[in-house]
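User: quick one, sequence for these tokens?
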């Protein structure tokens, strides 16, 4: 959606390109992935460093504040109320540019829309608005190419961009009219997270496709299903994999729900109480894609809530935490199946690691790391909830601490989702091993109870009778399907000559054709349905 008003310059139109909520493509963003995986964007942007963090986002060695680190001049964020700038140690403690630099693209988008609105209401002239747009375009290009200098003494991404713009373009001093960093950061985080959710949902779809593809390629493979990690009943491998497809679909739905709720524009709320200027909030909302399905602008209705609301961050963190739990459960199955005790699968060498001591080892480290990283995602959710629980209205500096938790959660679940999909795409099924495990006749003990039910026996009695048959099998050392009719009838006379036919696995699977069951035709139907949906 581009600016349509006659007051807006074509340069603004070319730079503001918000995505509609439905079907939008993700904005390319700098990444701070904690593991080295294939990059998400073609041009990573160098991250500014501080004494508190290294260039990789981790903790750095503590150093004594240097006079060179912080300018002696008063930062633009400090008014004439102050006689000097902050102390060097204070500046280092309070800076957030070492992590909130990631909001730069969305900060520029918001500034362009705000400037266009200021022109529309007469605060900026057309010449001034055009100059601001060109200045922001130049800054954007410099950031993209890694030629922009981030200054820790300017505290955050907002002041870094605004200060540099004002240095180049005098009219830049007007850009902050009727805007506070309180509503500015609320806007930037919403824009950033909106795009992240779109990208994450796309990666979830990729993992679903990998699961469906693996199931389709091994549609005839049957494995034991487990409860309490004990063999229970036979299921198709595809049915097991589709269980995770269902979980991931719910995850995607939760993210979509949260994305719809966060898609409300807070700009115009100011620091706490809006503005006395005749701002056109609906105009800004339209330019940035904060619209409903009918194209109507969606703006926050309470300025105090707008600047202090981080519900959407918590909601994303909660949805991401549940996604991480599902990924962890899938990882656990992969780890078990890859072990010699199961040997159901073989993961390609490129997605496994070795041991520094034991030359024979081939470890499923990707799955293990996905399982392990779930802890940090859960921890981030708890940190955010704890951060918010005692804050008085409205904005408090505590809220600066939400971003590292948010960024880390997004990075972690996106990397985990991508890597799980790639690993599954390079995994082969040991069909013969699976078949041997699924041939265990004890897996069909419940089918034998169903057989007695069809003979008219109450299920509780049938359950008891088959339990006695299992006991006989263990006592004699004979598998269930090798007991004779006489031995079965020694337990209960209801057993007839057709009783042993229950242990034909192919027949047993064909009978399980209730909706959602692991029956032969039902699993084929489910696979086909998911291939079409995805």
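Assistant:
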């Amino acid at each position: 959606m581009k600016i349509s008003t006659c007051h807006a310059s074509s340069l603004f139109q070319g730079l503001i390109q918000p995505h509609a909520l439905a079907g939008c493509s993700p904005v390319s963003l700098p990444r701070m992935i904690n593991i080295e995986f294939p990059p998400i964007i073609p041009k990573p942007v160098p991250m500014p460093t501080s004494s508190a963090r290294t260039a990789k986002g981790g903790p750095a060695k503590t150093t004594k504040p240097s006079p060179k680190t912080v300018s002696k001049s008063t930062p633009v964020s400090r008014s004439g109320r102050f006689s000097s700038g902050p102390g060097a140690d204070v500046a280092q403690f309070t800076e957030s540019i070492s992590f909130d630099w990631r909001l730069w693209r969305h900060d520029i988008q918001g500034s362009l829309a705000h400037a266009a609105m200021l022109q529309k209401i007469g605060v900026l002239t057309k010449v001034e608005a055009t100059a601001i747009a060109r200045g922001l375009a130049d800054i954007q290009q410099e950031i993209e190419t890694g030629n922009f200098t981030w200054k820790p003494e300017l505290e955050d991404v907002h002041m870094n961009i605004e200060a540099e713009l004002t240095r180049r373009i005098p009219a830049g001093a007007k850009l902050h009219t009727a805007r506070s960093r309180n509503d500015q950061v609320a806007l930037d985080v919403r824009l950033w997270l909106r795009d992240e959710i779109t990208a994450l949902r796309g990666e979830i779809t990729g993992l679903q496709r990998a699961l469906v593809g693996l199931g389709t390629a091994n549609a005839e493979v049957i494995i034991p299903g487990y409860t309490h990690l004990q063999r229970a009943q036979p299921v198709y491998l595809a049915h097991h994999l589709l269980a995770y497809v269902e979980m991931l679909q719910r995850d995607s739905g939760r993210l979509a729900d949260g994305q719809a709720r966060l898609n409300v524009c807070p700009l115009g709320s100011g620091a706490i109480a809006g503005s006395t200027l005749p701002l056109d909030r609906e105009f800004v909302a339209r330019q940035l894609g904060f619209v409903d399905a009918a194209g109507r602008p969606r703006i926050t209705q309470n300025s105090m809530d707008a600047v202090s609301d981080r519900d959407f961050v918590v909601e994303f963190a909660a949805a991401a935490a549940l996604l991480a739990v599902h990924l962890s459960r899938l990882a656990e199955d992969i780890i078990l199946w890859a072990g010699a005790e199961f040997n159901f699968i073989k993961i390609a060498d490129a997605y496994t690691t070795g041991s520094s001591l034991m030359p024979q080892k081939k470890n499923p480290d990707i799955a293990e790391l996905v399982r392990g990283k779930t802890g940090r995602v859960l921890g981030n959710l708890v940190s955010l909830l704890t951060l918010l629980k005692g804050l008085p209205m409205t904005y408090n500096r505590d809220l600066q601490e939400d971003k590292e938790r948010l960024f880390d959660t997004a990075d972690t679940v996106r990397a985990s989702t991508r890597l799980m999909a790639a690993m599954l795409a390079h995994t082969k099924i040991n069909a013969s091993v699976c078949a041997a495990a699924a041939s265990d006749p004890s897996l069909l003990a419940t089918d034998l109870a169903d057989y007695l039910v069809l003979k008219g026996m109450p299920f509780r009695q049938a359950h008891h009778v088959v339990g006695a048959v299992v006991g006989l099998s263990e006592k004699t050392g004979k598998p269930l399907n090798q007991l004779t009719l006489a031995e079965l009838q020694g337990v209960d006379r209801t057993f007839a000559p057709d009783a042993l036919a229950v242990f034909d696995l192919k027949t047993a699977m064909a009978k399980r054709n209730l909706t959602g069951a692991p029956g032969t035709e039902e699993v084929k139907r489910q696979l086909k349905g998911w291939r079409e949906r995805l």
